[in-house]
Amino acid sequence: MTGNWESAGKLIVRASENAAGGESVSANLLDTVSGNLAAPAGAILEAAGTSVEEVTENLNAVQQFLKDLPTKLFQFGVKAVFALILFWIGSKLINLVRKFVKKSMDRANADLGLRQFTDSLIKVALYALLIVWIAGTFGIETTSLIAVLGSAGVAVALALQGSLSNITGGVLLLILKPFKIGDYIKEDSKGNEGTVTEIGLFYTKLRTVDDKVVILPNGTLANTSLTNVNLSPNRRIILLLGISYDADVAKAKKIVADLLEEEPKVLKEPGIQVYVDALDASQVTIGVRAYVKNEDFFEVKWRITEKVKLAFDANGVEIPYNKLDVMVKEWPEQKTGA
Q: Which of 39, 146, 162, 256 is deepest in the core (most CB within 10 A)?
């Protein structure tokens, strides 16, 4: 377009020069100038008409959107309220299913850990199905949603390998049953110990002697060694008592044996043992072994330990403790010069 205006200008200048020289402007020259001027003017009008049409179409689209907006908002609100009602009804039905499964497993005398694990699994699965079903009420293709969730599930599974291993570990714990609810266990990797109170989908909870709750991943418990104290109905108490080398060993052993015989919760079978365990640097170590019921272990151990101390004190049996003898050496007096 700029080139056309330049061409027209050159022709006008040439025409002026010819007129100044006495020559007349020819009709062909005028036609050429008129054509060059008419071409850009037509292009401008055509472009302006196109722009006006586009603006008009955009304005019509905005007006139509604003006109349909209340209706669409109302429809969305109705769907949202309907979805909330469905979720409320679905959650109630899920609770009914969970209660039914719990009662069925109670009648079958299923293990408490299995009941807890199954309840967690049913809860997660049914709520996932409920959410997919509600998404379908909003017009979302459930097949496409399931495909997307499946693809996302692969990525999530790779990112959450530890959590998935906990689920697998929970299944193994329920199948192999190295322990059950109420057992007292010792986990060897971190030294945690306590009574099992819950076996969940991801974690197992222990309650310690001082009433703390320890939460352990199921994957860790399934892949480490542990000690289950309750697999045997009885538990052995082992005490190591130190007495002085000046004390009467036979007398000390008799005192301890009499205390164990008097304790009603100490089992008579397989019997008690009182023996000299070691001759240490500063004491004679007397070993004590006796069996009690699992539930009586700590109570009897603490009571026997206290009674031994009181009996040793009453009978003059010395319990040694670390001593430090300090010898002061006198240095000869230094002679002072006269």
A: 256
